[in-house]
Amino acid sequence: MIRNSFLILLLAGLGWILFQEFDSFKGSDQLNPVAEYYATQGPQEVGAANLVTSVVVTYRGLDTLGEVTILFLTAAIVGLLFKRESNSETEDIYGTSEILLTAGKILVPMLILVGVYIFINGHLTPGGGFQGGAVLASAFVLAALTFSGTTVKHRVLEIVESFSGISFVLLGILGVVLAGGFLDNKIFSLGTFGHLFSAGAIPIIYSLVGLKVGSELSNIVLVMKSSEKGGDHD
Amino acid sequence: MINFNSLNIETVSMGIGVILFVLGVWGIVSQKNIIKIIISFTIVDTSIHLILVSIGYIRGKSAPIIDAAINKENAANEVVDPLPQALVLTAIVIGLGITALMLSYALRMYKENKSLDINKFKALKW
Q1: The CATH number, out of the four listed (3.40.50.150, 2.40.10.10, 1.10.760.10, 1.10.287.3510), of the domain defined by the range B7-58+78-119
Q2: Using CA atoms, how far apart are residues A27 and A133, in angstroms rounded to an integer?
C-alpha cells in the first residue's frame, strides 16, 4: 500500500514536470541560428544533399565515431556474456518451415541489395549508414534463421568490423593531414552537388559505418542465437 | 490548458511523447518481470525520440534534404531543424545497444536463477 502511494506520487510528480514542459511548448516558425547555419552553409561546405547526413558525418562526426565505439563495446560485452559454443551445432528438431525457407531465399539477396543501396545513397536520400546497416543485419539474421546449416562465420564478421572501424579512424586522421581537421570530408573533391560521387568522404565514411553496424548487429544476434542452442543444459 | 483548436502535429507528437514517458516510468517501477522492465525502458527511449523530433519541427517545413523540391539558396526557410534528427539517429543506435545489453544480462540472470522475477534477485538489496 505504502509502496503504491509512493509510486503514484512519483508518477504524479513526473507527470506534473513534463506537463509544464508540454504546456509551455509553442513550436517554432523559424530555424534557430545553428540550424540556419547548417541549412545555408551545409550544401556549400559539405556538399551533401541530405542535411542530416552532413550533420551526422561531418559537423558532428566525432559523435558518430563515439556512437560506433559504443556499438562495438556492446557487441564485445554481449560476446563476453555468452561464451561461444564453438562446435556443438545441435540441429533443430523441427527444421525450417516451407514458408520461411521460400521467403528467405527470395528476401535475403533483396535485403542485402536494399541495405547497400541505403547506405551508399546516405548523402542524397533519407537513410544512411545506421539504417542501411540495420537492414543488412536483418538480412544476415534472416539467413541464419532460415538456412540453419550455413551460419555466417564469426571470423568474417569480426574482420569486416575491425576493417571498417580502423578505416573510419584513418579517414578521420587523413582529414587532419589533408584538410581542415579531424573527420573533415574535403579530403576528396566535393564533386557535383546531388550526384552519387559527391560530398567528399561522406559516402565512403557512411559505407564503412553501414558495414560496421551491419556486422555488429548481426554479430550480437548470432552470438545470442548460438548460445541458446547448447547453453541451457550444462 | 490545452486548446483543442490549436492542436498541430508538433503538439500532438510532444503530448504522445510525454504520455509514453510517464507510462514507461510506471512500467519500470511497477513491473516484476525483467523482460517487461526492459520493454518499459525501450518505451521511455521512444518517447524521448518523439519529444526531440517534435522540438526540432518547424511549422509547415519539409524534411532537411535538398533536392528538386527545395531551393538550395532558400534552404533555411524551407526545411526543419536537422540537428535533433541527427541526435535521434544517434539515440536510436545507443538505445539498441542498451537494449541488447539488458536482454543479454537478463538471459544470464535467468540461467543463474531460473527466474525472471525481479523480487527473486536480492544480491543488491539492503
Answers
A1: 1.10.287.3510
A2: 33
- Which chain A residues touch B82 with a CB distance below 8 Å? 35, 38-39, 42, 51-52, 54-55
In A, minimum Cα distance to B81 occurs at A35
pTM for the structure as a whole: 0.80
Interface A–B counts its CB contacts (< 8 A) at 142
Picking from A185, A231, A228, the residue whose alpha carbon sits closest to that of residue A205 is: A185
- The residue range of the domain holding A149 is 50-87+94-229
Q: Is the dihedral of CA B99, B104, B109, B115 positive or negative?
A: positive
| Residue numbers in chain A where pLDDT is lower than 70 | 83-95, 148-152, 227-234
Closest CA of chain B from A173, distance in Å = 22
pLDDT band at B40 (very low <50, low <70, confident <90, very high): very high
Inter-chain residue contact A51 with B82, CB threshold 8 Å: yes
pLDDT per position as a tens digit, A132-173: 888 988 888 888 878 766 666 777 888 888 888 888 888 888
